[in-house]
Amino acid sequence: MSELSLENLVKIYPFTSTRRLFGRKQARDMLAREQAMPYTTNEGVIAVQQFSLEIKNGEFVVLLGPSGSGKTSVLRMVAGLESVSDGTIRMDGKVINDTPPPDRNMAMIFQNYSLYPGFTVYDNLAYPLRNLHMPRAQVDEKVRAVAGLLEMTPLLDRRPSELSGGQQQRTAIGRALVRDPGIFLMDEPMSNQDPALKARLREELKRIHRKLGTTILYVTHDQTDALRLGDRIVLMQDGMIVQAGTPQELYQHPRNLYCATFLGTPQMNVFRGIPVQEGKIRLMGRDISLPESIKKAAGGMAAVTVGIRPVHFVPDPRGIEGTVDYTESIEAECHLHLKHGNEAFTVVVPKTSGRPYSRGETVRVMPETDRIHLFHPQTGIRLD
Amino acid sequence: MSKEKVKAPQIKDERGFHNLALILMTLLAIYCVIPFILMLSTSLSSEQALAKGGYSFWPREFSLAAYDYMWAKRETIGRCYLMTIIVTVVGTAGNLLLTSLFAYPLSRKDFKPRNFFAFLLFFTVLFNGGLTASYIVWTRLFFVKNTIWALILPGSLMGAMSVLMVRNYFNANIPYAIIEAALLDGASDMKIYTSIMVPLSKPVMTTIGLFAALGYWNNWTNGLYYITETHLYTIQVYLKKLMDNIAFLKSGNSVAESAALAYRTMPTEGARMAIAIIAILPILCVYPFIQKELVKGMVVGGVKG
User: Fold this and answer.
1) Where are the domain boundaries for CATH 2.40.50.140 in chain A?
2) Contacts of residue A110 in chain B, CB cutoff 8 Å?
3) Domain segments of chain B: what residues?
4) CA dihedral in degrees (B42, B47, B52, B57; nearest 10)?
């Protein structure tokens, strides 16, 4: 187990060399595309910037963000597979910016597990130890111990192609575990699995983490993985941290509109609200009371952005009127997609409410007062 | 509701094209097989019949005289065979080693000067020193004349196109994440090459190996340029020398009675063809078994890359 400290990490990828491209138009288009990225310098595209994070011993931290948000770049810099343009990476207090990957005492699990195809499970597990020139008996002992821990002893003679997705993942974890690394790095290890298997793999990973207490840095774009696995989630956008905190913190107190809409299924409803008097806003023709904590936040503003999660509406005969556009029946819930004039919003009601909803039907709902979020209409920053 | 006739989608009839392709491919195959049949038929015909009626697809007067002549020369031919096998085995092994060793760093994204080396490699495809300069370099600088190395090193040891083919195979078929995983697992570059890259690239290595082996087996030019000692002759060099000698006797420049007699009594055309048959026999025997791998490797290296 180890601690990791990332201080002001920056990663700049140089612009693609266009000298090798024969077509001028192609070269021009490529440069234009790269220069249109959110952040660029004369040197190239900035993939990661101002990235500072402390990861404690045994913590399970998830880097979450859409494609191109820089999460994999951070992971690869930590692993030593990418150079660090600026900033410092410390592991247990020691700077490891220039330490070669094998000497960092980290193990990485890749998207497709990257098991060695020609090797058996045993050889896959033994490979890192053989590279350390460990005596054969010791290698055997360690491999069998890890295989026992992961319940893989009967599979030791199989090749990766003969394993199921879950078994492949366990082999990859085993290969990482066998070296007894300080930190586990995982790069979207479940992105190619079907939902049922994914759920099982998540449980298994959680069980292993509980059992061993290893420090894990996990990269994903899947919010379900992040919310269910992470002790802490680091949400990223355009190479920067938007918000870092526990899953509950991010879900209940999103720092900005991006964070609020990124987390949660179905997505948070976003409306334009007009503050009418202190503690009240007008939303789709109804005056809604604001919770105590944000009563004064909208004071003096002509309009605010109001965020309400679909699960935080309750049926109310005096509430906002909406016409059912269509419905989705998902497990124990019913998702009502409503329309109010030009506004469209989603409301989740439990199926136990007993009544079916049909298209064109009018429904009246009211948001739960203490679950309303307000954001600045221009910057999207949370108003508290 | 009015009933409308829905036109069934027409599947384009490609039978005509297939038949044409079949005919063309058959003609091409016959075109390739004809010389071999002629060769076999000639080697089994008597010299007199050949002199009278020329070549035919079926032996005119069946005779094993050419093969008897070969049998009489079995000691020399056996030695040439052995030399050919040694050259082919050593050359092919060296070729595979050098080709893959060159291709591996070129396939590594983190090897900064790879573009420079790729340029150097490609340069040799377009330009080379020519025969005279090569001859001088090999004989004056490396002193390979009349050594077995003359049959192995010049020209055949490593081909730029083979390197590019192997590099493309590495890039297209071995996920880069596997290399990164091995790096994190503490493997050295050499270890990655030997334990991961080579075992995972069997199809392309088989293809390159077969090309190299065929090249070495059929090569007679190196022997012609650099070898004068008869004990270093390979089978192809021996065949070439034999043909030269027959041509010399036939040309009438040799006025000696014994030479004229030798020419009259030896099965010249038949012997030529018989030795050619003997030379390609091993390849003919092996080819059916390796054909699948050869095609697979070519498709993988050529199309996917």
Assistant:
1) 270-375
2) 177, 180-181
3) 16-53, 73-304
4) -10
Q: Which residues of B touch A184 (CB under 8 A)?
A: none
The type of residue at B186 is G
Residues of chain A with CATH 3.40.50.300: 4-9+53-261
Q: pLDDT by residue (tens digit) across A164-181?
A: 888 888 899 889 889 888
Q: Tell me what pLDDT residue B23 has.
A: 96
Phi, psi for residue A101 in degrees, rounded to 5: -50, -45
Please provide the average confidence, as pLDDT, over all residues in chain B: 84
Looking at beta carbons, which residues of chain B come within 8 Å of A180? Answer: none
- Nearest-neighbour CA in chain A from B185: distance (Å): 5
Overall fold of domain A4-9+53-261: Rossmann fold (3.40.50)
pLDDT digits (tens, 9 = 90+) for A291-306: 888 888 777 788 999 9
Reported ipTM exceeds the 0.85 cut: no
Q: Please, what CATH class does the domain formed by B73-304 belong to?
A: mainly alpha
* CATH node for A270-375: 2.40.50.140
* Chain B residue at shortest CA distance from A78: B184
The answer to whether residues A324 and A336 touch, using CB atoms and an 8 Å cutoff, is yes
- B77 contacts B70 by C-beta, under 8 angstroms: yes
Is the pLDDT higher at B9 or at A184?
A184
Phi, psi of B278 (to 5 degrees): -60, -35
Instruction: Give the predicted TM-score (pTM) of the model.
Output: 0.77
